[in-house]
Write a structure and sequence with these properties.
Layout: E1 3-10, E2 21-28, E3 33-37, H1 44-51, E4 59-64, H2 74-81, E5 84-87, H3 99-104, H4 113-121, H5 126-134, H6 151-164, E6 169-173, H7 181-197, E7 201-205, H8 209-215, E8 218-223, E9 226-232, H9 238-245, H10 265-273
Parallel strand pairs: 3-7, 3-8, 5-6, 6-7
Antiparallel strand pairs: 1-2, 1-4, 8-9
Length: about 270
């Protein structure tokens, strides 16, 4: 079992609003591929950050790879995080960095700080970065600066970082939001192929309902920080979807994830480990 949550509630540390997630119970087996759907502010990002051990639950039980990460020592929890890859909707890519270094950051959990610093000066495995970028047709951007990339290219660069990681679980937040339909299909196919090849768990939040229904065998609907449904795609009905998004334009707070810190080498190591 990759993840197990029982009656879990989560509150952002600085929030004055109610819990961002309330009374969630969920089990995810190794190798499952799951789409998270729901209106903006439903709690999708918060759930991904919680699964990545970036947010500590207020109450309830949480096990990751069979252990409670918050009962472990800090070093043991960091080692466990190395088995996860959290891909935010806006990848934390330093604007002045070369794409090759940004992609190789996916290997930071396996590197010492000294090796990470050396790789910033002279990339240690540009061939691996090239191969990962090539799967998203970005190999020509290997030595481009990140601030020269379009929004869609930055998202795919973040996905190349995911591929180069050695994670056993991919937690991916809105990876297709800046992509046109053809690129979105291609990017999703590459992610799913990689997850299948290494028997990794893939949990992906999406606003594209048609892609979620067409490509994910299990779909979880969230609203107001609670699970509304957790079903196989063949059991998902139009009535369930309509209920999930009904009056969804009212203000929400559940998906306000913590801000991304400014880049330094220690922050880069922490981001990759989460």
């Amino acid at each position: 079992m990759t993840f197990s949550l029982t009656n879990l509630s989560v509150r952002h540390p600085s929030a004055t609003a109610p819990n961002a997630l309330s009374d969630l119970s969920l089990s995810v087996a190794q190798g499952e591929q799951i789409a998270l759907i729901g209106p903006s502010g439903a709690g999708k990002t918060t759930l991904l950050h919680t699964l990545a051990c970036a947010l500590r639950p207020e109450q309830g039980n949480f096990t990751l790879f069979g252990a409670d990460p918050w009962r472990l020592s800090s070093s043991a929890r960091h080692a466990m995080r190395a088995r996860l890859f959290l891909a935010p909707q806006t990848p934390p890519l330093p604007p002045r960095q070369r794409v090759v270094s940004a992609v190789l950051a996916g290997l930071l959990p396996q590197w010492s700080v000294w090796r990470a610093v050396i790789s910033l000066i002279k990339p240690t495995d540009p061939a691996a970065a090239f191969d990962a970028l090539a799967r998203f047709n970005l190999q020509d951007k290997l030595y481009a600066r990140v601030d020269r990339l379009s929004g869609g290219e930055r998202q795919r660069c973040g996905m190349a970082r995911c591929l180069i990681s050695r994670a056993d679980a991919f937690l991916v937040d809105e990876p297709l939001s800046a992509l046109d339909p053809a690129l979105a299909l291609h990017t999703l196919a590459v992610l799913q192929q990689e997850a299948t090849a290494r028997q990794a768990t893939l949990i992906c939040s999406l606003h594209q309902l048609e892609l979620a229904r067409a490509h994910f065998p299990r779909i979880i609907g969230l609203r107001d920080g609670r699970i509304v449904f957790d079903v196989l795609r063949e059991n998902l009905t139009e009535a369930m979807i309509a209920s999930l998004y009904r009056h969804a334009d009212r203000p929400q707070a559940a998906d306000q994830a913590p801000p991304t810190p400014g880049f330094d080498i220690h922050a880069a190591v922490q981001t990759a480990r989460c």
